[in-house]
Amino acid sequence: MQELNHKLAEIKQEILDGMEQLESSKEVYEFKKSYLDSKKGKIGQLMKEMRNIAPENRAAYGKSVNELKEWATACFEELDVKLKAKELQQRYENEKIDITMPAVKKTKGNLHPITQVRNQLIDVFSSMGFEVFEGTEIETDYYNFTALNTPQDHPARDMQDTFYLSPEFLLRTQTSAGQIHVMENRKPPIKILSPGKVFRSDDDATHSPMFTQMEGLVVDKGITLCDLKGMLDVLVQKIYGEGTTTRLRPSYFPFTEPSVEVDCSCFACGGKGCKLCKGTGWIEVLGAGIVNKKVLENCGIDSEEYSGLAFGIGIERTAMLKYGINNIKLLFESDLRVLEQIDD
Ligand code: PHE
């Protein structure tokens, strides 16, 4: 019996020491099993020993082992309750939702300024009955220049520093190339808009080797500069605001005659003169003119019966003016800090 008591005291100490190491209810469960399991547990085995004990000692033996068992069960239970509470608390902490925290800001994407201006221009002109025709970025020398009354060695080719792909093919320098395709394939009345990328070997704060233009072409009976001015007045009012007007200045393009440079009254100062319009009250916005008879004839259109007007607008330039951007590169750098500010 003495030996047994000694053994029980040992197990008791072992349990006390062991419990100090336990950190989770799962560990308590395993630890508990290693003592109380009826087959493998240390106390369980002592219980099984019972039958080998001399009958006169059996009751005392059973009592002592049982006491230890009850004591251990209570200890484990107590520790289990404590650790489970701690674990629950921890789960609450981890899953805590702070409802006072500011919500994650949901940002709504917006269209690129070039796309915005392109769409605005298309809106203005489609309300006047224009259709969109998109040409190709690779063109032949014929469509980009020769058919536009700018044959080889014409000095006007100098105005557009061209990326040639071969003597015949080039990256179009102007959407005007689309005029020829349309006039070759359709009979007047023609009213098209041709937006797209164009390419010139030009690079500074206001020029980029790739930029976007929007061509407009109208061919019908009796088209004059007045039609052009009327349309452009509507355009600048829609883009730059009510009260904006246009003025035409003589200019030169081989494919229009007469040719004009179109200015709009300065929308920043209302025409009084400011930094934007360099004190003149006017801002140059696009090139235009009456389609040169030679161009109509090149496309098989009778220039006695029909006349046309054409204009070409730089979309980046329009976006820069409209949104006060001073460097064209900002439109190509995809910097969200810039792009997010422009959402019309
Ligand atoms: N294609 C000309 C340019 O790129 C602009 C223009 C288009 C001028 C149509 C007149 C008529 O400079």
Write the layout of secondary structure elements.
Layout lengths: L1 H20 L3 H12 L5 H8 L5 H40 L18 H14 L4 E2 L5 E3 H4 L24 E3 L5 H9 L4 E10 L10 E11 L4 H16 L5 E8 L2 E10 L16 E10 L1 H6 L8 E8 H9 L12 H4 L5
Parallel strand pairs: 1-4
Antiparallel strand pairs: 2-3, 4-5, 5-9, 6-7, 7-8, 8-9
Bound molecules: phenylalanine (PHE).
How would you characterize the overall build of this protein?
It is a single chain. With 344 residues, this protein is α+β, with helices and mostly antiparallel strands. It folds into 2 domains: 2-95; 113-339, BirA Bifunctional Protein, domain 2, CATH 3.30.930.10. Helix content is 41%, strand content 19%. The protein is built from 11 helices and 9 strands. Strands 1-4-5-9-8-7-6 form a 7-stranded mixed β-sheet, sandwiched between helices. A two-stranded antiparallel ribbon has the order 2-3. The chain starts with a helix and ends in a 5-residue tail after the last helix. Phenylalanine (PHE) binds at residues 174, 176, 215, 253, 256, 287-289, 310-312.
